[in-house]
Structures are given as C-alpha cells and as structure tokens.
Amino acid sequence: MKELSVDRLKAVLRYEPETGLFFWVNPPKNHPRLNEYVAGGISTGYVMIKVDGQKYKAHRLAWLYMHGAWPEMDIDHANGSPLDNRIANLRLATNPQNQANRRRDHGKDTPKGVRRLPRGSYQARITIDHKQICLGTFDTEDQAQAAYLAASQDHYKDFARAA
C-alpha cells in the first residue's frame, strides 16, 4: 500500500494545531455531507481517521501535517491524554520514554512502579533498557512511590509520570 503523503493529507483534511482537530475539506465520495465536519472517531483510546481506505492515528497525521514527514520515532502526548492532539502536546519519543509517560493501569491498587509484597511491605521497581530494576523494599507505599519517582525523573526526565 502506498504511504499517505503530506500533499494528499492536506488535500482531504484541514488540521487546526490549536485544537488538535481535523476537518474534512474533501470527504470520501460516499460521504459528501461530511465536508467541514470533524474527522475521525475514537478507537482503542486514540482518535483514528480513515483516509483512502487506511486508518491512521490522528496524532501521527498531525505530525505529518505540521512537519511534512512521518515521524521516525514514537509520538508522545506530553499531558498523557491520547485524545489531545494539539501539536504543542505532541513530541517525539523513544519507546521507553513513551512508556514512562503512560498512566498506571486502571484497577491496580498501588501507584505506578510499586507493588505490594506478601508480608505487607512495598517494593519499588523501574524498567530501564528493557530490564526491570528493583529500587528497594520499603515499609510504606509512599516511600516506595518516592523511590520510583526519583529514579523515573532521574532517568526519563520530562517523560516521567507519577500516576
């Protein structure tokens, strides 16, 4: 399949960098009433837009639209919201940086980077270069979280996320 070009993208969609929204300027032939409507829908937590029969994540299209080339790395949503596709919220990231900025999975009863041990203590862990590193065992959840946050901020800098 031919890769979507920036020229083709701009021929069918208009992007507003301040809002992060795309609008149809040349909608698909079978949906002419979509002209000037917001493009895309939410799927798997991301805004997805179908162009020429192919689905794309809106944040990747925003990067292409604004920079004229497909991103060579992951695109990270700085504020952690995958629905916020304002160009000011998008930044290039390595996969580990992108993962460091992920929110804690729902349904977990401990903070990110912390696990409860069977005897009531807490262990702080971080993954760096695909290796899980134990940061220590602590009496309280707060102590373990503080250890994780310090290590995360030290290693991942602006990509570190607490929760």
Automatic annotation (TrEMBL):
InterPro entries: AP2/ERF_dom, AP2/ERF_dom_sf, DNA-bd_dom_sf, His-Me_finger_sf, HNH_nuc. GO terms for molecular function: DNA binding; DNA-binding transcription factor activity. PROSITE patterns: AP2_ERF. Residues 110-163 form the AP2/ERF domain. Residues 94-119 are annotated as: Disordered. Keywords: DNA-binding, Transcription, Transcription regulation. This is AP2/ERF domain-containing protein. It comes from Pseudoxanthomonas dokdonensis. The lineage of its organism: Bacteria, Pseudomonadati, Pseudomonadota, Gammaproteobacteria, Lysobacterales.
